[in-house]
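Milestone 3.1: sequence recovery, worked example.
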């Protein structure tokens, strides 16, 4: 088997296999939601999102490398300064996705959320934090979602659960999709907030790195 045949087979597997994998994800997700006890954790279904994030990050690094090659080849001439001044901002736009994944992973990458639909209770465990609550205690459900773009940063969102005593729990998309979690909390009042980049609450460093021109 030649190299061209291998390339064709790989492309066919990607073209045919990716839609099947996405369809299977919806099937198994619906099957999970039908169970009396539902366990949410970071799993392999997030891999396409991570691959897209890594691809865009690699593209940004490639642009930075290209800018360095231009300076090395032309020196600090007017033309090279103009090219670099155009390329570097475009490169910087490629990095919010990987920053979002990193902050989301630190927040929920090792967390577990277990929902008991029969008992109408839930347990959120994240490192040293363990929170047990009744589903009825969640009074407000706020989903924060990104503006629709083709960037990898548009694949990250989170939900804020506000309890009767005023405390809040942030659940990122790495742990559970906000729209899925919303179906398990039908009694909570719902609200939605759209942002360009959905940084986690209190993530001031990311806002400084990619603002004010990159955030709302």
């Amino acid at each position: 088997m030649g190299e061209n045949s291998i390339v064709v087979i790989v492309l066919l597997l990607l073209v045919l296999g990716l839609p099947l994998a996405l369809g299977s994800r919806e099937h198994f997700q619906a099957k999970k939601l039908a169970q009396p006890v539902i366990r949410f954790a970071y799993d392999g279904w997030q891999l396409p999102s991570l691959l897209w994030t890594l691809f865009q990050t690699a593209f940004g690094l490639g642009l930075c490398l290209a800018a360095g090659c231009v300076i090395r080849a032309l020196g600090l001439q007017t033309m090279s300064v103009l090219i670099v001044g155009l390329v570097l901002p475009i490169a910087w736009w490629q990095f919010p996705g990987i920053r979002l994944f990193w902050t989301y992973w630190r927040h929920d990458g090792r967390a577990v959320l277990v929902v008991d639909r029969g008992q109408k209770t839930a347990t959120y465990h994240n490192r040293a934090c363990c929170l047990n609550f009744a589903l009825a205690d969640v009074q407000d459900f706020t989903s924060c979602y990104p503006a629709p773009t083709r960037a990898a940063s548009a694949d990250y969102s989170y939900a804020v659960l506000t309890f009767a005593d005023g405390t809040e729990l942030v659940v990122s998309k790495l742990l559970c999709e906000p729209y899925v979690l919303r179906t398990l909390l039908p009694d909570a009042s719902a609200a939605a907030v759209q942002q360009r980049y959905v940084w986690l609450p209190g993530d001031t460093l990311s806002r400084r790195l990619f603002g004010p021109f990159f955030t709302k």
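The chain is about 45% helix and 25% strand. The longest helix spans residues 3-33.
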